[in-house]
């Protein structure tokens, strides 16, 4: 890949109907590391444990380790019977490798995304996968807001946004292989309005996949590098 060369994806993007099923299918019977595991834990525990991604992975994985930098959330999880490690994905050095590393809506929060991906890749087994999900900056709602001149909503702790092509470049720089690219939109069931917006997002995404709400990529060790 040369400077000023237009980036071409090594795999064609596709659409995922259910990203959680995809994650769970890859986690089944595997050694899994869940990065940012305590995200939203105060919402899920104790009453909605079955909806918590970490709990769902735990049910199908052979072994599960969860890490997070939020000490308060880790302590909250411990109070409700789930032990997580306080660790930074950019610098952690764990004593094992994993068949699957899940980084669900975390990469947009970290200070140094390439450093985090490079460090996590060192924890992959030879055939392991790093699954990353992140909000899609081409989401139809953001595009529509730009068209009508409304402000763009950005969460205070989101410091970057990614297109699939960015992960292609990152893979090249770090000697990894981009093995899957998919777009998806969650169905938010918290209210009728949110549910309708979610289905609209899915409809728009069906017509224009790059306008879905979220993006998922899979990275692997590149045996040819």
Q: Your description of this structure?
A:
The protein is α/β, with parallel strands linked by helices and 225 residues long. It has one domain: 3-Layer(aba) Sandwich (Rossmann fold). It contains eight helices and eight strands; from the N terminus they run E-H-E-H-H-E-H-E-E-H-E-H-H-E-H-E. The chain has helices at residues 19-27, 41-44, 53-60, 71-79, 113-121, 140-148, 164-174, 192-207, and strands at residues 14-15, 31-35, 63-68, 85-86, 98-104, 124-135, 176-184, 214-221. Helix 1 packs parallel to helix 3. The mean pLDDT is 92.
Strand and helix order: EHEHHEHEEHEHHEHE
Number of domains: 1
In whole angstroms, how far apart are the ends?
14 Å
The profile of the biggest β sheet is: 8 strands, mixed
Short description:
This protein has eight helices and eight strands. By secondary structure, the protein is α/β, with parallel strands linked by helices.
How would you summarize the topology of this molecule?
Elements: E1 14-15, H1 19-27, E2 31-35, H2 41-44, H3 53-60, E3 63-68, H4 71-79, E4 85-86, E5 98-104, H5 113-121, E6 124-135, H6 140-148, H7 164-174, E7 176-184, H8 192-207, E8 214-221
Parallel strand pairs: 1-7, 2-3, 2-5, 3-4, 5-6
Antiparallel strand pairs: 6-8, 7-8
Helix pairs in contact: 1-3
């Amino acid at each position: 890949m040369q400077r000023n060369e237009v980036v071409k994806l090594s795999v064609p993007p596709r659409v995922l109907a259910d990203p959680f099923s995809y994650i769970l299918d890859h986690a089944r019977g595997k050694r899994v590391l869940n990065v940012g595991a305590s995200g939203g834990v105060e919402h899920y525990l104790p009453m909605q444990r079955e909806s918590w991604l970490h709990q769902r992975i735990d049910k199908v994985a052979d072994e599960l380790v969860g890490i997070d930098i939020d000490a308060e959330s880790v302590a909250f999880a411990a109070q409700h019977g789930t032990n997580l490690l306080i660790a930074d994905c950019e610098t952690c050095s764990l004593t094992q490798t994993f068949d699957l590393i899940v980084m669900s809506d975390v990469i947009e929060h970290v200070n140094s995304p390439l450093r985090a991906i490079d460090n996590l890749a060192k924890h992959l087994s030879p055939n392991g996968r790093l699954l990353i999900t992140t909000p899609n900056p081409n989401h139809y709602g953001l595009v529509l807001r730009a068209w009508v001149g409304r402000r763009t909503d950005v969460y205070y702790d989101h410091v970057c946004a990614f297109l699939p092509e960015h992960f292609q470049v990152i893979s090249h720089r770090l000697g990894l292989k981009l093995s899957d690219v998919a777009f998806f939109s969650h169905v938010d069931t918290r209210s009728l309005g949110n549910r309708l917006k979610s289905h609209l997002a899915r409809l728009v995404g069906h017509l224009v996949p790059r306008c879905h709400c979220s993006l998922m990529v899979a990275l692997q060790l590149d045996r040819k590098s």
